[in-house]
Write a structure and sequence with these properties.
The chain contains five helices and three strands. It is mainly alpha-helical and 165 residues long. It has a single domain (25-163), classed as Protein Binding, DinI Protein, Chain A (2-Layer Sandwich), CATH 3.30.910. It has a three-stranded parallel beta sheet, with helices on one face. The termini are far apart.
């Protein structure tokens, strides 16, 4: 008797899940490709490259200034007192640390600018994906970069069309 009940329950669950799966519509999209194609992303990249170049130029100027000072101090080393040379060594080390600190701050600022710039872009892409999926009756949209096999509707072209790209 228990065996029959178990078989009936297994059959009911199997049929129930099959029915649910048959009604579920799944699509996929490559969100990385979508975001990369968006004009906002290209504008953000240009802004970040410009800012990065500004930081790079400033850093190179500071490094060149430090190098010139180091070379001058090195040439004058023999003619200076031990106390003066020790003071100059500390000065050069302190400036080198400041340059390293500037590099780290510049990198953090670039990363922060990128994160802040990407947030509205990602939100816009997600809204477009949601709108297209809803309009076409899809229950789930999977990111293709995490899939091994992507059988089903690819929404990339439709979402790009919605975004005008």
């Amino acid at each position: 008797m228990n065996v029959i009940k178990t078989l009936v329950l297994i059959t009911v669950f199997t049929l129930g899940f099959t029915t649910v799966n048959a009604q579920t519509k799944i699509a996929h999209i490559n969100t990385e490709e979508l975001v990369a194609a968006m004009p906002e992303t290209k504008a953000l990249q240009a802004k970040l490259e410009k800012l990065g170049k500004t930081y790079d130029d400033e850093m190179k100027a500071k490094e060149a200034e430090l190098k010139a000072k180091f070379e001058r101090y090195n040439k004058e080393f023999e003619s200076q007192t031990e106390a003066t040379n020790a003071e100059r060594t500390k000065e050069v080390q302190l400036e080198a640390q400041k340059i390293e600190q500037f590099k780290n701050e510049a990198l953090r600022d670039l990363q922060k600018q990128e994160q802040e710039g990407l947030k509205p872009i990602l939100e816009k892409a997600q809204k477009a994906i949601d709108d297209v999926a809803k309009a076409q009756g899809f229950d789930y949209v999977l990111n293709v970069s995490t899939l091994v096999i992507a059988n089903g509707k690819d929404l990339l072209v439709d979402v790009k069309t919605k975004l005008g790209i």
